[in-house]
Amino acid sequence: MKKLFLFFCIGFFACQSEKKDITNVEIGERTDPHSFSEPEKAVVKHLDLELAVDFSSHIISGRATWDIQNVSEADSIVFDTHQLKIDKVTLDGSADSAEYTLGQEHKILGRALTIKITPDTKKVSIWYKTAEDAAALQWLNASQTAGKKHPYLFTQSQAILARTWVPCQDSPGIRFSYKAKVTVPKELMALMSAVNPQKRSDDGIYTFEQNKPIPSYLMALAVGDIDFKEIDARTGIYAEPGVLKKAAWEFADVGKMVAAAEKIYGPYQWGRYDVLVLPPSFPFGGMENPMLTFATPTVLAGDRSLVNLIAHELAHSWSGNLVTNATWNDFWLNEGFTTYFERRIIEELYGREVAEMQEVIGFNLLKATVAELGAKNDDTKLKGSFENRDPDDGVTDIAYEKGFSFLRVIEKAAGRNVFDAFVSEYFKSHQFQSISTEDFVLYLQKNLIAKDVKISDKVMVSKWIYDPGIPSNAIIPVSMKFKEIDSVIKSWGGSVKPSRLSARMKSTNERLYLISALPDSLSTQDLSVLHREYGFTRSGNTEIQCAWYTLALKSNYEKAYPEIEKYLINVGRRKLVLPLYKEMVKTEKGKKWAREVYLKARPNYHSVTFNTIDELLGDK
Length: 620
Ligand code: BES
Ligand code: ZN
Hints:
Layout: E1 43-54, E2 59-69, E3 76-81, E4 85-91, E5 100-102, E6 111-116, E7 123-129, E8 137-140, E9 152-155, E10 175-183, E11 189-192, E12 205-215, E13 221-224, E14 227-232, E15 235-239, H1 241-250, H2 254-265, E16 273-277, E17 286-287, E18 292-295, H3 308-315, E19 323-325, H4 331-350, H5 352-373, H6 397-414, H7 416-429, E20 433-435, H8 437-447, H9 453-459, H10 461-466, H11 480-492, H12 501-504, H13 508-517, H14 524-534, H15 542-554, H16 561-570, H17 574-584, H18 588-601, H19 607-617
Helix pairs in contact: 2-3, 2-4, 3-4, 4-5, 4-6, 5-6, 5-13, 6-7, 6-9, 11-13, 13-15, 15-17, 16-18, 17-19
This protein binds ligand BES and zinc ion (ZN).
Ligand BES binds next to β17 and α3.
């Protein structure tokens, strides 16, 4: 991998009062440390994919034909692959095999596929097969689905797993449009991050088109017993037949969310916005695959209380999918902006009070993450440095919540109207482009700070981006609802007293806050009182279950243990199982139990989740 640094002096933009703050910073590190590709030499523009999905062997096989641009008359083009078996390569539709080499295997990055081309080469075709344990893919047998009748397959490409199911230039800085023809068993439906069918085909063949240029991590495929239900003219829900009604009820506001988002930051650019609700082993809450958000069924709480997840994934249609982080070191640009935008959508639809509660919960998560990592840890900087590491290490609340806090500080310094105009213009002027942190800093300097010097002092841009910890000018969010909960807990004076709080305190946010604000050392008696009054686990709300079970483990509340075991086997969302395992491994006895439960749970987890838990339990 080459390293090409462009050094710029941006002293010009650094105004008097912030001279020390942003001068001589490294600007525009253009190359992606997590990709072997060399786009400055030869780069992909369009993909034509033809795949067959085989559930008996757990293998996808097919052909990826790439339209390429040979930028510098290079004699080769480099793709990323990981765990792929390459069968044949041809150029420009010729029957003859082209010359290629597969580089040495790198544990995290896989192998570079270098193909010999000429200055005139326009198309490169690669015939390949995926491995049985391809990291992006999860093959579920029928018993792991809601319907229990048909198998299921889904992909998760972010951050660098696309290369385990399609040979590609797997960098968020490289965009391409795509077409695909996918053959699946006749009784199943196939969906992609593209224009999708709403009905099953008769022959199991599906064709797709994504005509907007997207980065590789947004390629996605799901195959299963899936039906569709419309919400409004441009939004709808896909799910297994038995889940569809519940999912459509839960997400009834999706159409309104798209309209609210457009009102804040301009037109939705992707045509339709649909949501696919996956089986419970989906490793994330949601994944912003263009036109088709993938979502965990753990947000189907039955009371629409977790729909902020949809607001979040929808917000990525602007921050992330339209304007994309150039490398995974700039991940906060995707997630910080999206967390900010998510809360603006929530505020627009459900009011300031609800948004405030989520901001407080977010800020507490940020403080906890900084405390866990240490306030001087480089991984608490917004600008990440994950070269030679798995970019998955960067998926922490720093990107999300420190990113959010930073944008909140700018919003306050500039005023909401000025800030909104700035963000709308930022999305518009960078649409379908990838951007580095340094590009953003320059854009911010030029288009906001240079216009009003006072903003600079108030914001402290460089501190937020390049220093660890939480800067002193962070705005500490406040929720009156939560203050009320604080005072009730205080009035208990040490041990939990039954109060009438549960009747007034129905919302998920309030319940989550209550659990987090409880004193550390609760007795079994205290927990029984809480359990009786609040019935946290009766809710079927997995966020609340996660918080409650974590507390139960902390306080050795053994009554909850059988439920905890069931929960860990059923739920595969990493964020909702990791805190429990982390708590369990704190004692020898707990660790032994964790291993026993994990033995049963692991077959239900996607690689994203089991790799993290393997590491925690020291099995790998
Ligand atoms: N794009 C992320 C998920 C992701 C991040 C996958 C990094 C792989 C690598 C998605 O938008 C996300 O943030 N999901 C959250 C949603 C939550 C913040 C509402 C999740 O899954 O918990
Ligand atoms: Zn996100």
